[in-house]
Amino acid sequence: MPEEALSIGEVINLLRDDFPDVSVSKLRFLESQGLINPGRAASGYRQFDPEDLKRVRYILTQQRDHFLPLKVIKSKLTLWERGEEPGPDAVEAVEDTLESDGEPLTRTDLLRRSGLNAAALDSLIEHGLIHPAADSTVFPPDALTVAIECRRLFDAGLEARHLRTVRLGAEREAELLRQLTAHLLRADSAEARSRARDVLAGCADSVQALHRAILTAEVRSLLHE
């Protein structure tokens, strides 16, 4: 690994083979979110030392291999700096699923990173599993996870029309939680909103765990029919 300070362009060149979508704007975004903090030359240009480069590589690996949002990666970085690595339970504990985190995706990025073709993405949009912005060219970060999992289900033989069942189930679960916290969400105070957020986060985790347990039991029963 080079010992001298690297420019942002040199860092990109070193990482591009492993992370083809790395770019100047991506590294600037990571800096704006507090995940990296490269030094500055007298001229004001960013300078990355070997530790900065390792840090960027770690962050990009977590995004690529584990699809972790930046807030989770930021929490893991503290342990990584000490040479430790949290287990799955620690990751789940720090993840705030209600926080919209990460960069919006263009349609081209979403197709490339998910492995979907254009027709498959359009079918997911048509059936309400992915929601683009108003101009249909930008997608929220969560769309990548949906797209990747849908691609896996497509590979198994399902179609977007079949997956509407999953969407409808999630919408019913969200409506249940909305009813539970409606009085807090209507209240005009920061304390009530904060309480609503805590209740929604905790209950969403419980609903997800319940859903997984019930689904696992149902799938297990299929093997014994």
CATH topology of the largest domain: Multidrug-efflux Transporter Regulator, Chain: A, Domain 2
Class by SSE composition: mainly alpha
Question: How many helical elements?
Answer: 10
CATH C-level of the largest domain: Mainly Alpha
Helix percentage: 55-70%
Task: Give your account of this protein's structure.
By secondary structure, the chain is mainly α. It has 3 domains: 87 residues, Multidrug-efflux Transporter Regulator, Chain: A, Domain 2 (Orthogonal Bundle); 55 residues, Multidrug-efflux Transporter Regulator, Chain: A, Domain 2 (Orthogonal Bundle), CATH 1.10.1660.10; 62 residues, no CATH class. 65% of the residues lie in helices and 4% in strands. It is built from 10 helices and 4 strands, in the order ααββαααβααβααα. Strand 1 and strand 2 form a beta hairpin. The longest helix has 34 residues. About 3% of the residues have low confidence.
